[in-house]
Amino acid sequence: MITAGLDIGSCTIELVVLDEDRPIFTRRSETSFDYPEQVRALLSETEYDRILVTGYGRHLVAREFGMGHVTEIKAHAAGVHHLVPEARTILDIGGQDTKVISLDKQGKVTAFEMNDRCSAGTGRFFEVMAQALACRIGELGDLALSGADRLRISSMCTVFAETEVVALRARGEAPEDVAHAVVVSVVYRVSSMIRRVGLREKAVFCGGVARNKAVVQILAQELGCGLFVPEAPDFTGAMGAAILARGS
To answer: What pLDDT, on a 0 to 100 scale, did the predictor assign at position 117?
Structure first.
């Protein structure tokens, strides 16, 4: 059976098509205003027997195309368990929300916490901070790793944090030190969420922010354990939806 999974995120859309356990087609595109039309174009490039959709836009797409849908929590749990069966803790930081999920040996969700009420610490937060530091989002991690741990960003509100970053740069602070402070502020917030849910190894970090080397390294140091980052960390939700489509 060929199954497909769609993850409609606030910033990107991912599509994964599986032939049993083997990915045979993957696509990723930035989310536009008319994302149902994007979905139509993506699906025209492949074929499948069953499909499930997840992500923040799942309800609209499910109605538009008559698809089944699944929560992001279940989709990420299924995707990570498929890729890393020994995973017990999942951290997913996407464009607009952060999720921490605890799994049992069978990959079932035992606890979770989700922050979707503000963009603090998400991909959007890092986009704004990169703009304030006049660097590309993909360069922010390396910039932060080259900085010293000597500054602090006190606010996690994106607007106020941006104001702090601009003020620090205006007084002559090195951009790498400010970038390091930005990452540390996010790490403190995320590590608190993880501890509330309960840190259990093996811990897997997925979502687009998992590509930020500084977040991975500094968070691992704060937690005192290693973090496994999948090869394609932003595809785990779509992967999980494709896996769950088998039983839909």
So the answer is: 60
Across the chain, which has 248 residues, the per-10-residue mean pLDDT values are 94 94 93 89 95 94 95 97 96 90 96 77 87 93 96 87 94 96 93 93 94 96 94 96 92
Q: In a 10 Å sphere around its CB, with 0-12 CB exposed, 13-18 middle and 19+ buried, how is residue 94 labelled?
A: buried
Q: Which of 26, 2, 30, 31 is nearest to 16 (CA)?
A: 26
Q: How far is 176 from 146, CA to CA, in rounded Å? A: 6
Q: What is the pLDDT of residues 32-91, one digit of tens each?
A: 888 889 999 999 999 999 999 999 899 999 999 999 999 999 999 999 999 999 999 999
Domains of the chain, start order: 1-84+232-248 (3.30.420.40), 86-229 (3.30.420.40)
- Note the maximum CA span of the chain: 60
Neighbours of 140 (CB within 10 A): 23
d(CA 243, CA 19) in angstroms, rounded, equals: 10
